[in-house]
Amino acid sequence: MKKTIALLTGGTTGEWVVSVKSAATIAQNLDADKFDVYKIMLTQQGWFYEPADSVKIEVDRNDFSLTLNGKKIKFDGVFIAIHGSPGEDGKLQGYFDMLNLSYTTCDALTSAITMNKGYTKAIVQGIPGLHVAKSAQIFNSIPYNTDQLKKDLKVPYFVKPNNGGSSIGMSKVNHADDLQAAIDKAFNEDSQILIEEFISGREFTVGVVKLDGKVTVLPITEVETAKEFFDFEAKYTPGVARETTPAPVRAETRERVAKIAEAVYVKLNCRGVVRIDFILSGDEGDFHFIEINTIPGQTATSFIPQQVAAMDMKLNDFYTKLIRETIG
C-alpha cells in the first residue's frame, strides 16, 4: 500500500533557497512505487500545493489536508525539508504533534533546543571523549561587559548568533578591539549570541541516522576552505570549499568519531538524519563539538547525499528507510 507523503519545503528565513533545492533532491529520489508525494511550499504568504497543471491550492491547516478536484487528501506523514524556522526550531513539529501526524525529523523539544547552540553545548558536555570550546552567552536584553568577555576568553573568538544553522551573522575575531563590531553584526540576526574561543584543527562533518532500528554513523567528510571559516558562502558556493568523503583519517580515529557522534545523537534524543560539525585538534587528537543540524541540507552537493553515496547506498533506498523509521 502506497503511503501519501507531504514534502514540506520553503520556510520564512534566508535559508528557504537551500530548502527548495533540498526538496528537489528528495523528490527526485523518493520511490514513486512506494510513495505518493505532494510538495508543499511554506512561505510568509501561506502554505500551498502547486500542481504542475493548475493554480496553487492552499493547505487546510486545521488538519493539514488538501482538497483536489473535490477530493480531500490526508497524509500518512510529512517529510520536513525546511532549514531554519519554522522547520528546524520545533515549531512545525509541535503543530504536527498536535495533529498526531508523523514526520521525518527530531521531535519538537530536541529541535528547539538544538537550534540554540549554547543550550546544546550544555547538554552534550560530559560525553566521554567530547570537548567543547570555552564560551560565553550574551543577550541583547541584558547588559554585558565587553571588557570582562575579553578577560574571560582568549582571542581569536568566533562570534555567532545562538539560533540558526547557516553561519549567517557569524564572524571570526582575531583582535579583541574588533569584538564589539562582531557582536553588533550577530545581534542583527538574533537576540542571543555565543562567543567561543577558536579551536585550531581540521574541520569535519558527519551524518548520523537511525535506520532499520539501529543508529548508523555515515562516512565522515573533511571540509577545507581558503576562507577564515566555513561560512554561508563556503557552504553553498561551488569551489569555495574542498570536501573529501570519506575523510582521510586513521581507522581508530574513525571509530572514535563514530562512537562520540552516536552518543551525541542518543543524548540529544535525535530522530531522522542529523549532521554534526566538529574539529579534530592536533594530529587527529581531541574531538571538539561545534554544532548539530537537525535538518541537514539534501541538495545534490550537500554532505548527507555525499556520505550516503560513500557508503554505497542509493539515496532512493536511504529516503525509503528514513521514512519507514520515522513515519512507519
Runs in which pLDDT lies below 50 for 5 or more consecutive residues are 230-234
Strand tally is 19
Strand fraction band?
A: 25-35%
> What is CATH's topology name of the largest domain?
D-amino Acid Aminotransferase, Chain A, domain 1
N-to-C span:
12 Å
| Structural class by secondary-structure content | alpha+beta
Helix share, percent: 25-40%
Order of secondary-structure elements: EHEEEEEEHEHHEEHEEHEEEEHEHEEHH
CATH architecture of the largest domain: 2-Layer Sandwich
CATH superfamily of the largest domain: ATP-grasp fold, B domain
Mean of residue pLDDT values: 92
What's the gyration radius in Å?
20 Å
Q: Which CATH class of the largest domain is shown?
A: Alpha Beta
Domain count: 3
Cofactor: Mg(2+); Mn(2+)
Family: Belongs to the D-alanine--D-alanine ligase family.
Subcellular location: Cytoplasm
Pathway: Cell wall biogenesis; peptidoglycan biosynthesis
